[in-house]
From TrEMBL:
Keywords (A to Z) from UniProt: Glycosidase, Hydrolase
Protein name: Beta-glucosidase
Source species: Lachnotalea glycerini
Gene Ontology CC: one annotated term: cytosol
Positions annotated as active site in the UniProt record: 386
Length: 487
């Protein structure tokens, strides 16, 4: 058996988000969140990410009046809220060292603005974390994973208004105090770079409410407010739980040039730089100069609070986490090239890569490149907190799910991580996305499955919710047991 490069104590596990798995959308005092308004649009091609994500104020009004859960599939999720002990048992059986979950802000402060937190929400997560510890599973907690209170979107323009920073910090302080001693690893904003891709779920902004010519400025302002909130959330974390660590979280959308034409190389470099800008601010504590030049060129005016620059500088994150699903290709001749689009990004088709059933270009080497680049850039520990293959898994006549394609996907990606570690990169852990099947973020489909565990549920919310181990379950168990040796 080959030697493994994975360090002792490497954090193997899996990743989830509360709004995609918990369900119980209106139970025990929970308020309505932006995620509770996302719809499954069966009539739209699921790989058309723009159309799938688009939302109007009319859609929001309808969602607020509706009690429907089949159209708004995140409202029922996979019922993790009631079944989490059973699910944790399965994660424990696989040998998880860590599980990424998020805390829904709306369970703690239903509208985001309340004076007192909702005790039943606080108790739920306390129980969840305790049950995780009983099974030797460390929680990795995202504070903001596409699930802000809808009230803040409707009444405070989402993250555009500065008051939201204070509401968010109040939420953070509440959960830090309550979960001190239970949670060591935290993340502020999930995929903070996705604000332009889906502004409603990330920053609570609905495009038709704002003047077109101000739209870009509004998004930049909202994400600036998130940067400040992220820095202050890091400050308070260190004050309240000194032994805890905070990570930023970006989608690594690695872009290759179409060929060695210098102009193509320049375009790709600029696109990569744009993706890095979000981690640059949170790690280096300042805006890169190219963003400030872009604002000047476009006459975008961002309002900085008096102390903002100092705040960003003083409270950088401790580690860098990211999701990695695919790479993309850009070209100066993009309009005339064959395109591929996934829910995260689109671009020119890469002839060397296969695509998934949702048109995502599978590229394990790109993960190794991303790890090396991020480490060279920041010199901070890295955590791959999402990676995985969404596919339509089929049940065999004997009831088994033979997901060899998923095993192969993970074999290649784990080898890529090992190759980066061999290059001297410090990697803290690996939490494959959707370790149990859950509702897809972008398309609200159940049929887009990522898990090692199958959940009996379809796109319309029909099914028994029964859990079943896929072939990949035992495979991943053996990977963890051998610390990445036995692939
Ligand atoms: C990431 C998100 O963008 O991708 C997750 O952080 C999401 O919430 C994951 O589920 C996969 O995307 P999708 O749309 O296939 O669920």
């Amino acid at each position: 058996m080959p030697n493994t490069s994975f360090p002792k104590g490497f954090l193997w596990g899996g990743a989830t988000a509360a709004n995609q798995c918990e369900g119980a959308w209106n139970e025990n005092g929970k308020g309505i969140s932006v995620a509770d308004c996302s719809m499954y649009k069966s009539e739209i091609d699921p790989s058309d990410y723009k159309a799938q994500h688009s939302i109007t104020s009319q859609d929001i009004e309808e969602a607020m009046l509706s009690q429907d859960t089949s159209k708004y599939a995140k409202r029922h999720g996979i019922d993790f809220y009631h079944r989490y002990k059973e699910d944790l048992d399965l994660f424990q059986e696989m040998g998880f060292k860590i599980l990424r979950v998020s805390i829904q802000w709306t369970r703690i402060y239903p509208n985001g603005i309340e004076k007192e937190p909702n005790e039943s929400g606080l108790q739920y997560y306390e129980d969840l974390f305790q049950e995780m510890h009983k099974r030797d599973i460390e929680p990795l907690v995202t504070l903001h994973h596409y699930e802000m209170p809808l009230y803040l979107s409707n009444h405070y323009d989402g993250w555009y208004q500065r008051e939201v920073i204070e509401f968010f910090l109040k939420f953070c302080k509440t959960v830090y105090k309550r979960y001190k001693g239970l949670v060591k690893y935290w993340l502020t904003f999930n995929e903070i770079d996705s604000v332009f891709r889906h502004p409603f779920t990330t920053i609570g902004l609905v495009e038709d409410r704002y003047p077109k010519e101000k739209w870009e400025e509004i998004i930049y302002q909202a994400v600036h407010n998130q940067f400040v909130a992220s820095a202050l959330a890091t400050k308070y974390l260190h004050e309240i739980i000194p032994e805890a660590q905070m990570g930023c979280m970006i989608t690594r959308t690695l872009t290759y040039p179409e060929n060695c034409h210098p102009q193509n190389a320049l375009i790709a470099l600029k696109e990569n730089r744009k993706n890095f800008y979000y981690s640059d601010v949170q790690v280096r504590g300042e805006y890169p100069s190219h963003i400030k030049r872009e604002w000047e060129r476009k006459n975008i005016k961002i309002i900085f609070g008096k102390e903002d620059e100092n705040i960003l500088k003083e409270y950088p994150v401790d580690f860098v986490s990211f999701s990695y699903y695919m790479s993309r290709v850009s070209s100066m001749d993009e309009a005339n090239k064959e395109q591929v689009s996934g829910n995260l990004t689109s671009g020119v088709k890469n002839p060397y890569l296969e695509t998934t059933q949702w048109n995502w270009q599978v590229d394990p080497t790109g993960l190794c490149i991303s790890l090396i680049e991020l480490y060279d850039r920041y010199g901070k520990p890295l955590f791959i907190v999402e990676n995985g293959l969404g596919s339509r898994d089929m049940m065999e006549s004997d009831g088994s799910i033979q997901d060899d394609y998923r095993i192969q996907y993970y074999q290649e990606h784990i080898k890529a991580i090992e190759a980066a570690i061999e290059e001297g990169v410090e990697v803290m852990g690996y939490t494959p996305w959707g370790c149990i099947d859950m509702i897809s973020m972008s398309t609200c489909q159940m049929s887009k499955r990522y898990g090692f565990i199958y959940v009996d549920l379809d796109d319309n919310g029909n099914g028994s919710y029964e859990r079943k181990k896929k072939k990949s379950f035992n495979w991943y168990k053996q990977v963890i047991a051998s610390n990445g040796k036995d692939l």
